[in-house]
Amino acid sequence: MLAPNPAPGPWQRRGADGTGSGFGTEQGWTMSDEVDLGRRQLLTNATALTGAVGVAFVATPFLASWKPSARAKALGAPVEIDIAKLEPGAMLKVEWRGKPVWVVRRTPEMLASLKTSTPLLADPESEASDQPAYAKNPARASNAEYLVVLGVCTHLGCSPAAKFTPGDVTVSADWPGGFYCPCHGSKFDLAGRVFKGVPAPTNLKIPPYSFPSPTRIVVGADAQSA
């Protein structure tokens, strides 16, 4: 005697004869079929998500390229400085291309000291030094009142200290005022010109700069390129 057909399981669809024999027929499916269908849907969703994420990763660098990064600025983007509150005799420090830039507002006395220091200098006319053409003069500036100079010693790249007071005993009794590098003893006057007999071979470097207004300086762009 044949055993009766078992009741269809929860994963079986009844066949046309009302039994659970719909395995592999057009009308029925098995749990394996449902698992395959679920896996297929999961893979479809994952592929779509991956595609969307890929588009986002591609788009993000493109959109970011519309704005200069901090690294791009450090590599050479001009820096604008507000000098409206810079007092006579004071110095302002900023960074350009990863290096310190000093802006000194020189007093009449500081400018007068440039003449007295000339006999002590190795390159008073800046013939062997690096500066724009408009800064190749005794003041090494386009506007004599303001010195714009890189605060990097031309010997080994140290940062000299500002020693503006004449006769400063931490430098020498006959010191006219300027910049002193304590690392190896290099000295520069208030135009960044190097003294004789010190390790530094040349004057401090003058970067390109311009005055878009009387109270603003742009470092990194001279008047021709500003």
Core attributes:
226 residues, Rieske Iron-sulfur Protein, three-stranded antiparallel beta sheet, 3 helices, globular
Q: Which structural category fits the helices and strands? A: alpha+beta
- CATH-scheme architecture of the largest domain: 3-layer Sandwich
The CATH class name of the largest domain reads Mainly Beta
- In round numbers, the mean pLDDT is 79
How many DSSP E strands? 9
**Alpha carbon gap, first and last residue:** 104 Å
Report on the biggest sheet: 3 strands, antiparallel
The proportion of residues forming helix, as a percent range, comes to 10-25%
- β content, as a range? 15-25%
CATH fold descriptor of the largest domain:
Rieske Iron-sulfur Protein
Segments where pLDDT lies below 50 for 5+ residues? 9-27, 49-68
State the order of secondary-structure elements, H for helix, E for strand: HHEEEHEEEEEE
**CATH H level of the largest domain: which superfamily?**
Rieske [2Fe-2S] iron-sulphur domain
* Biggest sheet strand line-up: 1-9-8
Number of helices in the DSSP assignment: 3
Approximate shape: globular
From the alpha-carbon coordinates, what is the Rg to the nearest angstrom? 38 Å
Describe the structure.
This protein is of the alpha+beta class and 226 residues long. The protein is built from three helices and nine strands, in the order H-H-E-E-E-H-E-E-E-E-E-E. The protein has two domains: 1-67, no CATH class; 71-219, Rieske Iron-sulfur Protein, CATH 2.102.10.10. The chain has helices spanning 31-64, 70-74, 108-117; strands spanning 79-82, 91-96, 99-105, 146-150, 161-163, 178-180, 187-189, 209-213, 216-219. A three-stranded antiparallel beta sheet has the order 1-9-8, with no helix packed on it. The radius of gyration is 38 Å and the shape is globular. The termini are far apart.
